[in-house]
Structure formats: C-alpha cells, structure tokens
Amino acid sequence: MVRAVQSGPGAVVTADTPFGPDDDTFHPGPDDNPYWAETTWWSFNVPERRLGGWLHAQFNTNRGTVTWRVYVWDPSGAHPDQVRYYRTENEVPLEDPEPDLRDITVPGGGFSVRMLRPLHDYRIDYADSATDFAVHLQFNAVHPPRRFTPGEPPFMEHTHLDQLGHVTGELLLGGERIAIDCYSVRDRSWAPRGGPAPSAPNKPRSDGGRVRHPGGPRWRQIERERGRGRIQYIFGHAGPDLGFLAFVRVADGDAEGWSPLNHGWLLADGRFERLDKTASVMKNWRDPTTGWSDHMEVRLTDLTGRTLRAEGQAVSHITERGAGATALMRWDFDDRIGWGEDQDIWHPRHFARMRQALQAVR
C-alpha cells in the first residue's frame, strides 16, 4: 500500500488554495479505481544545442506499478529511434510497499527524486551505463507551486501543479559532458488517468456540431473539432522575472486561428499573476510537411491588466506516437530571448485528418 496523505475533511479547494509540504508525496485515491495515477515530471533544456529533455513517471498506485520514460531530443531527429536518447518502461512493479515520493528511485532502472526543501528544491538523477548516458539536475523553485481552477478543462478531475525553477546540472550524452543551466518547469498531478472514456448521453449538441466557430482554413477547422482530446500546453521564460505558462483551449478558437488560454500565469518584473482567460490568446502556424507546430504568437493579459506578447519558433521536436509533437521553443519577448516548450497532444486519427488538409493541393 502506497503511503499517502489527505487534505482536511470537507476542505473546499479553489485556485487560491496553497499546496502544503504533504503534497510532495503520494495522495490516496477516493476509491480503489485501478486507473488512479500520480505523476512527477521534470524538464530541462540546453539552448545552445537546441536540446530538450524530460524525466516523467506515472505511478498507478492502486495497481502497484509505475510507467516511466526519460528522453533527450535535438534537431537531429524527432522519432524515438532518432532522438539522442529515449527509454521507457511500462507497468514496472513497485518494489517498496510504502514508497515516498520525497525520496524515491523509480524501479526498473528509473530516475531518482529527492526533496531537499518542501515544495521548493529537489535533486533528480538518472544514469544508463549501457549507453553512456546520465543526467543530474538540481531544481530550485522560483515561486511556490501554482494551482489552477479545479473542474475546468483540462482539470476536470485532476489536481495539478506547475512550478518554474532554475535548473542546473550536467548531462552525459554519448560520452560528452554538457552543462545544464536553464529556467524550466516541473509539474505534478493526481487523478484517474487512462481509463475508458465515460459514455456521453445521446442528445443534440448545443454548438451545432463538432466545431464551435465554423470557417477559416479547412485544417484549422479540423483542429478545432470538439471531443477529440486535444491538449496544448505552452510555456517560455527568459529568466526568473519574465515569461508565461498557459493551457490552450484549441476547441474554443475562432475561424482566424486565435485560441483562448484558460489556465496559466504571466510573469513580469518578477511578479506572477494568473491569466485573464477572456483576454489571452495564441495563434499557431504549422509545418506543412510534418503538421507539427512551427511558430506561434501569444498575446497575454493577466488579472491586473498587465500585458505581454511573445513570438515563438520551434527549434526541435520529439514525437512519441507519430501524431502531435513536443517542441523546444525559442521565445522572443521584445529585446529578450526565452526558452520553453509546446506540448501539442492529439489523437492520431484526428492529427492525420488535419495534416491531410494542411497538405492539400486542390
């Protein structure tokens, strides 16, 4: 049985509810749902190499297993057999009957996470001696972890946190030692994941179809189809004082290609504020060959009225399922340059239809 912590009985959770030290470790599911899962994700980048990296684990705590993956990509290739390093292990049994996420080594040869200061500082280590690969990270948070509005897409059942940190350390890649010194994001969530989709009642759709705002280029209209599981998550930071993070509501976008942002932050002059969901938008342009994000424009307004604009260029990609891709993004904030990601998640059949329309010649 996984050691878990519970919040106080009857507590009402809002976007302003702070996380506590106990949120560094596991949380109990409300029942014995086999799809109850808890994740830990760490990202880093090396701008000079156009290189991005992930360490991610999903603990299926009621099943007593974990699925994890570690990878590094750069412009040399995007598919798992092309990227600089890729390893994933599925449904590995949890060896420790009472694991503690504050000090854990993921079984099956996975990475370790050690909490150094609650909700703030962490050490992450991984090594694969068979391939001469290793990554050693120190994550020092820039701010307390942020919680977003519960019960709104994409957090219908999820408790989710995001946190910007100064990430330093070293990457051993093909025998070469590469210094890491960047600002990037970690996140955590706990909720049911991967189970069968709930059946929807058979009733007329109030929006008149799968597209809320018909019109515009055909590929953009396909992209906006509702009920397809589209998620897009973007962030970029030029340091501890400037940047943004947002979830994109693609299905609510307009015919011109502008999609609203419904969760996230604007960071300017070292101050974080939540986004104004009614005034923050993103427009994406796609590569006509791959269909992946190529460049985008982001217009952000926070709840205090401050504004920020950024232009992003994708400099390298990784695609795990051959559909959408995660891109390492270079962001221009007027006279400063930031780095981050675009996580562009699709159902493969939906992506194939969009790309076919993007590549149409008649």
Automatic annotation (TrEMBL):
Residues 25-193 form the DUF7065 domain. It comes from the Bacteria. Residues 1-28, 190-220 are annotated as: Disordered. Residues 232-340 form the DUF7064 domain. This is Uncharacterized protein.
